[in-house]
Amino acid sequence: MLNLSMKPTGWFQIGWSQEIPSGSVKPLKYFGHDLVAFRSDDGELAVLDAHCHHLGAHLGHGGKVKGDCVACPYHGWQWNTRGENALIPYQDQPVRKKLRKWDIVEQHGIIFMWHDPAGGPPREGWLPDVFDHPEKPANPGDYYPCYPDAVVFAPNERIHPQLMTENAADTMHFRFAHNAPEDPVLLSFDTDGPIWEAKTGFRSKATKEVAMVLYARNAGVGLNMSIFDHPVLARRLVLTCTPVDDDTSDLRVSYFFQRDARSPEVMPEHVREMARQTRTLFEEDAVIWRHQKFVQRPIFAKADVAGYSALRNWCAQFYEATGVPQGPMKVLDA
Ligand code: FES
Ligand SMILES: [Fe+2]
To answer: Any idea where the Rieske domain is (predicted)?
Structure first.
């Protein structure tokens, strides 16, 4: 029995921008760290270690935004968006002490945080963009915002991020888990560098020809961006799995649907209906992942071998800091 680490390196989703409007504070917990997110009155978002350097109160529980600082609920010490102590209300000078500041990026209403257990800075080219795709670029303005109408949030699931990521190479589960009429085919995959790119073709039941191509990119083990290229089913999605601690993860799906010219501002009912179905689609996979054990050396069928083996090898690079699989997740070493 081996274990699979819950502390991989990469960018991970920690929420949606609109959950933290200007002037608000939110407690978070990821990778076993207590964190506080707050947005200054000017709209700058910051994520810091949560516990005040004074006497350890959690800034996310009762802390208040004052200008570009979060004020501690216990004795009012203020910490700015760089993590520095900016004010002690009953003393002339602040202390030269900093709370750890976490690197974050906001992209199309999604908040990503960099995690490297070795403490290294964000690496160049590790975060793709669901709209800025080399073959299928699109203008984000042509799509409805994902939040709040086209998202799925599944907190505190006992799911390891790699299980979600391995779906990208798994063509044979569609028939069984999603009731697909035909098995899709893995058209190509490219494992160069930190972004996995794959194309999957979905065949029409009538003609058996490839009628829709799914362009998928994985960035690390907890982040998948996919494009469904189809005249009617066109959509883009960001699927993420972020470890909370050594046992659980928060999963999120963000769907971007193309704006309908008849109702470009307000998402019309037929799009809302598609958005609602995304929960069902997510559940079809999640019910498997929740109860799955990670099998270190699976017995592959011929159709699985190429994609799965390549993906497993590619995933290993994200565990470099902690060494290959160790941590909490139970692994069947068959
Ligand atoms: S514990 Fe934060 S100000 Fe005292
Ligand atoms: Fe799936």
So the answer is: 11-113
